[in-house]
């Protein structure tokens, strides 16, 4: 039967492939059915006798082999690979999948070039005025102030030793014009200065000149007719009294200048401005 189908389909391999497969399948099933029908009595006898157990296992293996062959026959002979078909149109885009987990951070890249400066932004609003701070001053610092020392914050007291006095620079320094010696720095009123230094306090507001303090000078007196006069030179006790224009008039040599002055003291204070001197406690 198989050969007849094969001869009939020699020129129609592709169309008759199904018929060949069906023919072989019927043949195989028929053989398998006959074999199984023939083996049933034997298996039954072996079951009762217990001598055909091995044959049953062999029979099972044969059945599996026949089933494998039957499956191969049903699949048929593999044909030649056909030409690829025309690509179909692209289908619609699928839905986006779930976001994957964040990967491991890579190494830091190199720094890029500096960009051009941007335009200046608008000026911000002015902030609130802060509280005035308190400056730190070392103890013993003396300052001048328009306010009384008790009105200053931070611990200040009046520097009484400077009351009514001018301040003069103290300590050793290069000679300045008009300065004979350096002044000792103030410690206490009346403190004795170091050798070569002037006292740290001194001077007075008023002073009366003594005769020795007057500048050296002279007075030239011409005796005129204010006293006893006589024409010609009478002799001892008489001197010319009319000056160079009158050589004949002589006067007695007892003429004196008048006395003036009241020995009053005068101010020695230069123009000044008075300020409070305060000492840091």
Task: Write a compact overview of the structure shown.
It is built from 3 helices and 8 strands.
Primary descriptors:
281 residues; alpha+beta; three-stranded antiparallel β-sheet; 8 strands
Averaged pLDDT = 76
Our estimate of the beta-strand percent is 5-15%
Biggest sheet: strands side by side, in what order? 1-8-2
Q: Give a count of the beta strands, DSSP E runs of length 2 or more.
A: 8
Biggest sheet: strands, sense, closure? 3 strands, antiparallel
Estimated radius of gyration:
73 Å
Class based on secondary structure composition and strand pairing:
alpha+beta
Topology pattern, helix = H, strand = E = HHHEEEEEEEE
Helix content: 10-25%
Low-confidence stretches at least 5 residues in length (pLDDT < 50)?
Answer: 1-17
Separation of termini? 137 Å
Q: What's the total helix number?
A: 3
- The best one-word shape is rod-shaped
